[in-house]
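Chapter summary example.
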Amino acid sequence: MNTSPSNLSAGQVRLRDVIDRDLPIFYDQQRDPEAARMAAFPSRDREAFMTHWAKILADESILQQTILFDEQVAGNIVQFMQDGQPEVGYWLGKTYWGRGIATRALAQLLEYVHVRPLYAHAARHNAASIRVLEKCGFVVTGTDTGLFEWDGQPVEEAILTLAAT
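The structure predicted for these 165 residues follows.
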Protein backbone atom coordinates (compact mmCIF):
# COMPACT_ATOMS: atom_id res chain seq x y z
CA MET A 1 0.00 0.00 0.00
CA ASN A 2 1.35 3.42 -0.95
CA THR A 3 1.25 5.72 2.10
CA SER A 4 3.02 8.71 0.60
CA PRO A 5 1.63 12.08 1.77
CA SER A 6 -0.05 12.67 -1.58
CA ASN A 7 -1.85 9.33 -1.32
CA LEU A 8 -2.89 9.94 2.31
CA SER A 9 -4.42 13.28 1.43
CA ALA A 10 -6.46 11.78 -1.39
CA GLY A 11 -9.20 10.48 0.92
CA GLN A 12 -12.70 11.90 1.00
CA VAL A 13 -13.46 14.74 3.40
CA ARG A 14 -17.05 15.57 4.18
CA LEU A 15 -19.02 17.36 6.88
CA ARG A 16 -22.14 16.15 8.62
CA ASP A 17 -24.15 17.11 11.67
CA VAL A 18 -22.60 16.18 15.01
CA ILE A 19 -24.23 13.14 16.61
CA ASP A 20 -23.94 11.94 20.20
CA ARG A 21 -21.58 9.09 19.38
CA ASP A 22 -19.05 11.60 17.98
CA LEU A 23 -18.56 13.19 21.39
CA PRO A 24 -16.37 10.47 22.96
CA ILE A 25 -14.09 10.70 19.92
CA PHE A 26 -13.92 14.50 20.19
CA TYR A 27 -13.19 14.07 23.91
CA ASP A 28 -10.26 11.72 23.24
CA GLN A 29 -8.91 14.03 20.51
CA GLN A 30 -8.83 17.06 22.83
CA ARG A 31 -7.04 15.02 25.53
CA ASP A 32 -3.92 14.62 23.38
CA PRO A 33 -1.19 16.71 25.08
CA GLU A 34 0.44 17.79 21.81
CA ALA A 35 -2.89 18.85 20.31
CA ALA A 36 -3.76 20.81 23.45
CA ARG A 37 -0.35 22.52 23.34
CA MET A 38 -0.76 23.44 19.67
CA ALA A 39 -4.22 24.87 20.33
CA ALA A 40 -2.96 26.44 23.58
CA PHE A 41 -6.19 25.23 25.13
CA PRO A 42 -6.14 22.88 28.11
CA SER A 43 -7.96 19.58 27.86
CA ARG A 44 -11.23 19.35 29.75
CA ASP A 45 -12.16 16.47 32.00
CA ARG A 46 -15.00 14.27 30.71
CA GLU A 47 -17.78 16.00 32.68
CA ALA A 48 -16.68 19.51 31.69
CA PHE A 49 -16.20 18.44 28.08
CA MET A 50 -19.65 16.84 27.81
CA THR A 51 -21.29 19.85 29.52
CA HIS A 52 -19.55 22.18 27.05
CA TRP A 53 -20.73 20.15 24.05
CA ALA A 54 -24.26 19.86 25.43
CA LYS A 55 -24.39 23.68 25.41
CA ILE A 56 -22.99 23.83 21.87
CA LEU A 57 -25.51 21.28 20.58
CA ALA A 58 -28.42 23.05 22.30
CA ASP A 59 -27.53 26.46 20.84
CA GLU A 60 -29.28 26.81 17.48
CA SER A 61 -27.11 29.82 16.60
CA ILE A 62 -24.01 27.60 16.46
CA LEU A 63 -23.32 25.59 13.33
CA GLN A 64 -21.49 22.45 14.43
CA GLN A 65 -20.26 19.80 12.04
CA THR A 66 -18.29 16.60 12.34
CA ILE A 67 -15.35 16.34 9.97
CA LEU A 68 -15.21 12.90 8.36
CA PHE A 69 -12.17 11.55 6.53
CA ASP A 70 -13.00 8.40 4.59
CA GLU A 71 -16.10 8.13 6.84
CA GLN A 72 -13.98 8.16 10.04
CA VAL A 73 -14.49 10.94 12.60
CA ALA A 74 -11.45 13.19 12.13
CA GLY A 75 -12.62 16.17 14.19
CA ASN A 76 -15.13 18.98 14.29
CA ILE A 77 -15.68 22.45 12.92
CA VAL A 78 -17.99 25.15 14.25
CA GLN A 79 -19.24 28.60 13.31
CA PHE A 80 -20.40 30.70 16.25
CA MET A 81 -20.69 34.24 17.59
CA GLN A 82 -18.01 35.52 19.97
CA ASP A 83 -18.33 39.01 21.41
CA GLY A 84 -20.76 39.93 18.62
CA GLN A 85 -18.48 38.71 15.83
CA PRO A 86 -18.96 35.60 13.68
CA GLU A 87 -16.10 33.16 14.17
CA VAL A 88 -15.02 29.77 12.99
CA GLY A 89 -13.06 27.16 14.88
CA TYR A 90 -12.02 23.56 14.34
CA TRP A 91 -10.27 20.69 16.06
CA LEU A 92 -8.67 17.82 14.20
CA GLY A 93 -7.44 14.63 15.84
CA LYS A 94 -3.65 14.36 15.71
CA THR A 95 -3.71 11.22 13.57
CA TYR A 96 -5.33 13.33 10.83
CA TRP A 97 -2.82 16.19 10.83
CA GLY A 98 -0.79 17.02 7.73
CA ARG A 99 -3.21 15.56 5.17
CA GLY A 100 -5.04 18.71 4.06
CA ILE A 101 -8.19 17.57 5.88
CA ALA A 102 -8.69 20.75 7.91
CA THR A 103 -8.25 22.91 4.82
CA ARG A 104 -10.79 20.89 2.86
CA ALA A 105 -13.25 20.87 5.77
CA LEU A 106 -12.99 24.64 6.22
CA ALA A 107 -13.42 25.20 2.47
CA GLN A 108 -16.59 23.08 2.58
CA LEU A 109 -17.94 25.00 5.57
CA LEU A 110 -17.30 28.29 3.78
CA GLU A 111 -19.44 27.09 0.85
CA TYR A 112 -22.54 27.52 3.01
CA VAL A 113 -21.43 30.01 5.67
CA HIS A 114 -21.64 33.28 3.78
CA VAL A 115 -21.38 35.80 6.64
CA ARG A 116 -18.46 38.18 6.14
CA PRO A 117 -16.33 39.32 7.65
CA LEU A 118 -15.69 36.01 9.40
CA TYR A 119 -13.04 35.72 12.08
CA ALA A 120 -10.76 33.05 13.52
CA HIS A 121 -8.17 32.94 16.27
CA ALA A 122 -5.13 30.66 16.35
CA ALA A 123 -2.19 30.45 18.70
CA ARG A 124 0.75 32.19 16.99
CA HIS A 125 2.93 29.10 17.47
CA ASN A 126 0.37 26.98 15.59
CA ALA A 127 1.67 27.71 12.11
CA ALA A 128 -0.24 24.78 10.60
CA SER A 129 -3.61 26.12 11.76
CA ILE A 130 -2.78 29.62 10.56
CA ARG A 131 -1.81 28.15 7.19
CA VAL A 132 -5.15 26.28 6.94
CA LEU A 133 -6.99 29.56 7.45
CA GLU A 134 -4.78 31.42 4.96
CA LYS A 135 -5.33 28.75 2.29
CA CYS A 136 -9.06 29.43 2.66
CA GLY A 137 -8.66 33.18 2.19
CA PHE A 138 -8.25 34.40 5.78
CA VAL A 139 -5.64 37.09 6.39
CA VAL A 140 -3.84 37.83 9.66
CA THR A 141 -5.27 41.18 10.73
CA GLY A 142 -3.95 41.42 14.27
CA THR A 143 -2.79 39.73 17.42
CA ASP A 144 -4.10 39.44 20.92
CA THR A 145 -2.30 38.40 24.08
CA GLY A 146 -3.57 37.59 27.50
CA LEU A 147 -6.98 36.05 26.87
CA PHE A 148 -5.56 32.61 27.63
CA GLU A 149 -2.55 31.25 29.46
CA TRP A 150 -0.54 28.12 28.76
CA ASP A 151 1.90 26.86 31.38
CA GLY A 152 1.45 30.13 33.23
CA GLN A 153 2.39 32.25 30.22
CA PRO A 154 0.03 34.42 28.17
CA VAL A 155 -0.77 32.96 24.76
CA GLU A 156 -0.27 35.21 21.77
CA GLU A 157 -3.07 34.64 19.28
CA ALA A 158 -3.25 35.58 15.63
CA ILE A 159 -6.55 37.14 14.64
CA LEU A 160 -7.51 36.22 11.10
CA THR A 161 -10.26 37.71 8.98
CA LEU A 162 -12.06 36.50 5.88
CA ALA A 163 -13.31 39.71 4.31
CA ALA A 164 -16.25 40.15 1.99
CA THR A 165 -15.41 39.39 -1.61
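To summarize the output: Residues 46-58 form the longest helix (13 residues).
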